[in-house]
Amino acid sequence: MANAGRTVTKWIRFGISDNAGAAREIPIDSIGPVGFTYDETELTAWQDAVKGYLTNHPDCAIDITGPFDNTAAAAFAASAAAPTLSGSHTILSALAHPTTGTTLPRGLWIAFGIRHYWTAAEDPAFGVASPSATSGYVLTKYVVEGEKYSARFVPYPGTVPAWGTAILIDYA
Amino acid sequence: MAVGRTKQKYWRVYANGYDLSGYSRSIGPLALEYDEADLTAYMSDVVKGYLPNMCHISPGTLNAVFDNTATTGLYALTQATAGSSRNLMVPIGIRAAPADGDPVFCGQFYQDSFNVTEDGGAVTATIQYSGLAADATTKVYAQQPWGILLHAKAIRTEATGVNTAAGFLNYSASATTTQGGYFMYQVFAGDGTLTLSVQDSDDWDDPADYDITVATTGLINCAVPTSGVIAVPTTTTLREGLRWQIDFNAGGGTATTVTFACAFMRIYDQT
């Protein structure tokens, strides 16, 4: 039976496509705001009694931090299963963009299990669960300091990340 | 080589053939950051979209204990080199001193400063490094500062001979990558000349299959601390495994012993 209601961070999963397109999960210990933040366009006229606004295009960059880890890449866990972690360094260091090759968007998936392991078609998730050559996120930062790393992902042009309940799949 | 998480006490810092680890407290942040170019088509795109543009790579700041020991002390090794380009290597040991196969951060960076400071009564030094040197050998290739430490700092002798062990699989377990990369070596001590190289393999855990040399140094004078970078062009295909190799005799080599570390930074394809 589906859980509904509140939850805690131990049930959050973070998935990302590796450089070869396979779905992987890496360890995180913080994540920036997840979701859309819209630019505000102020359209107030002097004659207005109250300032007025319209929302413009949203941003939905994702910033994460976590432990540096060089564990070998592992198979992505299924719905309702315990996470299987690949090393953060193993996956992120190989996402440095190639010199002469093509930068391709990657799948990115933040899943919020509701007091249990995240379950497809039931629990919320944000990102691009079905990446393609035209839809996904790109890495723009990988920094290691002490025992931790920080990384940042931004949407590839034309991408429309979304909230949903689907699991991250391999790059198609 | 171990895998998993680690602590900074197992990091090391090598610069131009000198091991600065004995004086170092921390180094970082080890940064790879791209400018984000906003390519949103405002009339048609629903969400803002970006592409990574040029990247900034830097090892950050080395924080160390001030020490004026002659020849090998931090003061002797870094005071006079402020303003100079350095071949920097930062191996990251995994819950132990760095071992063959561990992660490593490398590049050519200018040493922007040597400053003596105070920290709670202790006399310390901070050494700020630049972004990737504009005249770096690796500038064209080095969008990738991260690699694999093929040979952790250790002594090798002519008597023990060549490397007959298997090397290391690339991080994405790709059968090949097609973007080349670069090889960095740090020679700390030795007694003559020799050649270091990197070999690749199509069967990474079979030592017999490391049969193609993909980067070679030429003769290195190991009698003085030295370092270098060998670029492998971006059009080069590298097979799945890489290992270090040594030749004490090629080209009239005269060394019988050498203490060195080396690493290879492979540039990965995106598929």
The total count of strands of chain A amounts to 11
The helical percent of chain B reads under 10%
- Sheet with the most strands of chain A? 5 strands, antiparallel
Low-confidence stretches of chain B: none
**Largest sheet of chain B, described in full?**
12 strands, antiparallel
From the alpha carbons, calculate the radius of gyration of chain B and give it in angstroms: 20 Å
What would the CATH topology of the largest domain in chain B be?
A: Jelly Rolls
Order of helices and strands of chain B: EEEEEEHEEEEEEEEEEEEEEE
Beta percentage of chain A is: 25-35%
**Net shape of chain A:** globular
What does this 3D model show about the protein?
The complex is a heterodimer of chains A (172) and B (271). The longest helix of chain A is centred in the middle third of the chain and has 5 residues. With 172 residues, chain A is mainly beta. Helix content of chain A is 3%, strand content 34%. Chain A has a domain of 119 residues. In chain A, the strands form 3 sheets. In chain A, strands 2-1-7-8-11 form a 5-stranded antiparallel β-sheet, with no helix packed on it. In chain A, strands 3-6-10-9 form a 4-stranded antiparallel β-sheet. In chain A, strands 4-5 form a two-stranded antiparallel sheet. Chain B has 271 residues and is mostly beta strands. Chain B folds into 2 domains: 83 residues; 121 residues, Jelly Rolls. Helix content of chain B is 2%, strand content 49%. Chain B contains 1 helix and 21 strands. Classes of the chains: A mainly beta (172), B mainly beta (271). Chains A and B meet through strand 5, helix 1 and strand 9 of A and strand 4 and strand 5 of B. Strand 9 of chain A pairs antiparallel with strand 4 of chain B.
